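Two proteins follow. First one:
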Amino acid sequence: MNLHEQLGALEVGVDQLIQAVVAPQAQNIPETRNANTAQEASAEHAASAEEKAQATVGAAAETEAAAVHAQAETARKEPAANPDEAATKPVEPAARPTLEINRPAQNEITMTIGGQTVALQPEQIGQLIEELSNARASMTPEPPPGIPPGWRFVSTKNPVMAVQKQSNGDRLLVMRHTGHGWVPFTFSPDMVIQLYMMLTQR
């Protein structure tokens, strides 16, 4: 309800108040009293009731005006947020969790991601290496064709090997690395000759 509607409601209430106050008093005036005296008393009561009603209306109007002024000040100091701006405002990406790898013991490795730490035993590490190796084989870019400078590695001397001949003439060579586990390689016949020459040359 706005200010004008409240003022209208108060005026209606004033009229009803005047009728409720003046009518009973007019009926309670003795018949023996002078008609002029009764009219003057009714007029005085009506004037008093109207003054009180006007005072009430004025107070209500001042209160409503103060509230409207306060709302205007608040709206001026704190403009309402535009929902379109909030919808189009870019959302900052959350920080990506970091991976930390530690080796607290000879046969244990811990991996910490996003504050969650998992301890891995040798069997679990071997399984993880195998899964990662299989996934990496289908990813791009491929590993560099040449040996990168500063590459750290652990070589296995005289590894255990297994060879299997394929139906198309290729040779499957599987070598056991102490870190990577069983590592399979497939060689075509001409590549087998090149490998033999590389290994036997002085």
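Second one, unrelated to the first:
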Amino acid sequence: MVDFRTIIYDLENMGFWSVVLPFLLVFTIIFAILQKSYILGKDKNGNPRKNFNVTVALILGLAFVVPSVLGRYPPNADPVLIVANALPGVSLLAIAIISVLLLLGIFGKTPNADDKVGGIIAIFIVLAVAIIFAISAGWFVTTLPSWLWFLYDRQFQSLIVTILVFGLVIWFITKEDKPNKDDKDSMLNKLLKDIK
């Protein structure tokens, strides 16, 4: 009988979670950006130069992981540990946002860039991800007063995200739809359209 817990512990002992997964994450993100942006040029057929993109992504992925394995980063500045600490929070946020979108979709409501709610959700996502990474990097350890210790508690963070998700769903479902002619030309909507 296969014991999956033993397999996970064996993978941990081999360095799969601390070496292979961070490498694959960085490699995939860099490769996707290079493929979509054509930074390294195009081939004869107008396609991105895949061989160059793979090489650069491979080098950057290894440059991200290898110094961590060799212990060459300063104690509180290891990017692999920062990413490992931040990803559970980002995953929780992603699940919360997908849950909001699923619940809104059930009721026929979908936020978009032309809607104020879509802009608010986009700003909330950016701020939340930035805060999660900043906390994982330890940037707020000295700036927050000691009486705010509860903000670092994972259970408290989960409770706040859950309350925000349900509050947003309830507000979005129960709000009255009003035609807003002035909102179409608002600065936030122009910014969101330019980002698209």
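SUMMARY FIELD: Residues 79-195 form one domain. The chain has two domains: 4-69, 79-195.
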